[in-house]
Amino acid sequence: MKPGRTVAFHTLGCKLNFSETSSLARLLEQEGFSRRSFDESADVYVINTCSVTDNADKECRQIVRRLQKRSPQSLIVVTGCYAQLRPEEIAKIPGVDLVLGAAEKFNLPDHLRELTKNDTARICSCDIDEVTHFYSSWSINDRTRTFLKVQDGCDYNCSFCTIPKARGRSRSDTIENVVHNVKRLAEQGVKEIVLTGVNLGDFGIHPEKGLTRRFTRKENFFQLMQALDEIEGISRFRISSIEPNLLTEEMIDWVAQSQRFMPHFHIPLQSGSNTILRLMRRRYTRELYAERVNYIKSRMPHCAIGVDVIVGFPGETDEAFQETFDFIHGLDISYLHVFTYSERPDTHALTLKPVVPVTIRHERNKMLRNLSYMKMQYFTEQHRGQTRKVLFENENKNGMMEGYTDNYIRVTTPYRKEWANQILDWKL
Hints:
This protein is α/β, with parallel strands linked by helices. Among the domains are: 6-126, Methylthiotransferase, N-terminal domain (Rossmann fold); 137-262, Transcription Regulator spoIIAA; 387-427. 33% of the residues lie in helices and 24% in strands. α7 (175-187) packs parallel to α8 (221-228). It is globular and about 60 Å long.
């Protein structure tokens, strides 16, 4: 590998991808690469892809085409979920030199040692069943909040989702290693860690020693929470997202009394109609979901609750959507992440009818985004006049800086360098 090479990264998708991109950057820096911004000239461009929606696939293809026009001699590497699911499709995009599947992603430095610009892309993918190893990843120096991956893969088979095919079986880091990584991050001045995973509540499954295709549960997420709560040096932990059927009252009670776990949950709902939930192959009912929200609010009235919801899923009639809208409207939640259903290849949802027209999907998306805005306004207004602790971020945005309260209310104020990465009492 030539000395002094430069590399630039672009990340599509979830917090998990951001943590992995950051780890890939550190791997290449150890090999002598200098990191560049993605809009700068670089010897190597790495695109870490998502494939949750069709837009993510399209964006990847558009980025490659722009790079090919701007920097035709640079090497272009595509990895991530889209690369695992559609390696041949990506390899046909002019300009792509290397496609890395899930098992090869963290072997990027080895592949770059021999990679040269060619007319055809090299594909290094594999059967997803062969993906059994867990790679620790975290973001650092990218944001004030650090995203720490503690779990990967998923054993659920929701009818709309390609993630099990893209990331493989559910598997986790060990509590011992997570604690070790958290202590390292604390030494580097990190104040807040967001625990991330594909199915975070399923934490604790490991391949048996010597039997890479046999997995057993040896630990669980609540045990991890207890272990992390004992670590000095980290002021805040957040749970990025957790399935309602895996979020227990025991966990909620722990957060309610914890000084380090923030009063903030993000709980996927996807639909407020039990009929649609069954079609989606989700593992809970709307009644269980409401029980979880109500219990959280009974223990922590100030707690922020975020909700994922999908609109336009096949079979979602006007009545089913109204059921979802009314259900969410009646829940004491704080904000929504609204996704428009997108057909994904090789999913059971493709067989379901009737298909919801795209124009109606977008209308429903807009309605729920408006509802989300009203929910967040109401949640914020409830705390007006209160003093809460805010962790301010490093970024200077046109003379302004942002921070978040413990319960995830965003605060904006004129930039002051001495406040960056500091937790301050703030009157809302």
